[in-house]
UniProtKB/TrEMBL annotation, chain A:
InterPro entries reported for this sequence: Citrate_lyase_ligase (IPR005216), Citrate_lyase_ligase_C (IPR013166), Rossmann-like_a/b/a_fold (IPR014729)
Source species of the chain: Citrifermentans bremense
Signal peptide: none
PANTHER family: [CITRATE [PRO-3S]-LYASE] LIGASE
Name by which UniProt lists this protein: [Citrate [pro-3S]-lyase] ligase
UniProt domain Citrate lyase ligase C-terminal: residue ranges: 137-318
Keywords tagged on the record: ATP-binding, Ligase, Lyase, Nucleotide-binding
TrEMBL record, chain B:
Protein name as annotated: Citrate lyase gamma chain, acyl carrier protein
Coarse class of the protein's main subcellular location: cytoplasm
Pfam families: ACP
GO CC, any one term: cytoplasm
Modified sites of kind O-(phosphoribosyl dephospho-coenzyme A)serine: S14
Top-level division of the source organism's lineage: Bacteria
Record InterPro entries: CitD (IPR006495), Mal_deCO2ase/Cit_lyase_ACP (IPR023439)
Length: 333, 86
């Protein structure tokens, strides 16, 4: 029977079992479960958000149904929490044992494979089936936290050089501005561009699943592997669906993670048939326009200068009561 | 009957299936199965039969199957439908 692992002794056994298999016991997690046999922990598994991890069955107990039981429990409980699609990172050699459990292989690269349970990628693409346009299309993937003149410039330039441009707004809620607000600013700020379609990335690009370190800003070497998976997933599953032949990016003078992501793009995408075009950031008042600069100015209350950095539609939103509530967390200054 | 909430029934184990139900405007059924090529049509027919029997006209029905027999499909789906009602 699968049970929650809660006591200090449970945790000690879980740590030992995970370490024994060569994996790292990795905090945090939302759920940790296991199976005991005569007081001894023989299988363990954890869930952090949509990601299943630390799935281990003791060598003497492999070949049975323990992995199935642990995954069933984690999926069942996760579904009750509102999650309908689950991911697992594993070695390509173990991918088949997850495929036997109805996981779909999304992407594999060298040492890591990413699989999904719940058919979410297909459902995501199906949702946008009517927005697939033929031709030589391009893509921009951006967080737009908030939508600036820099984004506008990138989108305008990109849209003018392709048949159709898909602007993917990062869905992950780790930004100052929540996804619905970002989406609205982007939609209003690009409404006049006829060949631009605004979509969300769901969990399939720059998300806490495909690219957690983008949000953690850490120097974890795992970040490099995940950047690669994120880009492979884009190149092999998303881009072909939308006929995307070019990905446009802005040069990145500020964030190290994003600069590294840009470098990874130049390395990984062209061999897979996707051109990468990096546009120099536009500058205003002597410095490159960036969303982080806009956020800093908002925090300092320098509202006058912001008008030069964002489109009117974004400014309207920032100064609306809804917008003020988001950035003026310390109350009126 | 109407699917009122998000529910799940079944397991990922061999010879079993997982059923996920969600309220929706129209009826969609998706089936993933390790034996889809051989038995996809039969699984679909069984699922449609149970849904019709309970008068389910709308909802998102997702099934991941690992070679369950007919009566298991029926039992799991009916359990999920019962849970989705209340």
């Amino acid at each position: 029977m699968v049970t929650s692992l809660l006591s200090t002794d449970d945790l000690k056994q879980a740590q030992a079992l995970v370490a024994q298999s060569g994996l790292r016991f990795e905090l945090p997690y939302d759920d940790l479960v296991g199976v005991f046999e005569s007081g001894q922990l023989v299988a363990v598994g954890a869930r952090e958000g949509r990601v299943l991890k630390m799935l281990v069955v003791a060598p003497a107990h492999q070949g049975g149904t323990l992995l199935d039981e642990v995954v069933t429990e984690l999926v069942g409980r996760g579904y009750q929490e509102g999650i309908d699609s689950f991911f697992v990172f594993t070695s390509p050699a173990l991918a088949t044992s997850f495929e036997a459990l109805n996981f779909n292989l999304l992407v594999a690269s060298g040492k890591t494979a990413l699989l999904e349970y719940g058919d979410g990628l297909r459902r995501y693409l199906t949702r946008y089936g009517r927005q697939v346009f033929p031709g030589n299309n391009g893509a921009v993937v951006a967080n737009c936290n908030p939508f600036t003149m820099g984004h506008r410039y990138l989108v305008e330039e990109a849209a003018s050089s392709v048949d159709h441009l898909y602007l993917f707004v990062v869905r992950e809620e780790r930004s100052l501005f929540p996804f619905p607000a970002r989406l609205r600013m982007v939609q209003e700020g690009t409404a006049d561009l006829k060949n631009v379609t605004v979509l969300d990335t769901s969990w399939y690009a720059v998300s806490s699943v495909t690219f957690p370190t983008y949000f953690l800003k850490s120097d974890d070497p795992a970040g490099a592997i995940q950047m690669e998976l994120d880009l492979l997933l884009f190149a092999t599953r998303i881009a072909p669906f939308f006929h995307i032949a070019t990905r446009f990016i802005g040069s990145e003078p500020f964030s190290r993670t994003t600069a590294e992501y840009n470098r990874a793009m130049h390395r990984i995408l062209p061999p897979l048939g996707i051109a990468v075009r990096e546009l120099e950031r536009r500058s205003a008042v002597g410095a490159a326009v960036s969303a982080s600069r806009v956020r800093e100015m908002l925090m300092r209350g320098e509202l006058e200068g912001i008008a030069e950095l964002v489109p009117v539609s974004t400014l309207d939103f920032l100064l609306s009561s809804e917008g003020i509530k988001i950035w003026d967390k310390g109350g009126s200054k | 009957m109407k699917i009122m909430k998000k529910v799940q029934a079944g397991t990922l184990q061999s010879s079993d299936l997982m059923v996920f139900l969600e309220p929706a405007e129209s009826l969609t059924v998706t089936i993933e199965s390790t034996v889809l090529k051989q038995f996809g049509e039969l699984i679909r027919a069984k699922v449609d039969e149970v849904l019709a029997k309970h008068g389910v006209e709308a909802g998102e029905v997702r099934i991941t199957d690992r070679g369950a027999l007919d009566y298991a499909i029926e039992a799991r789906l009916e359990t999920a439908l019962m849970r989705a009602e209340g």
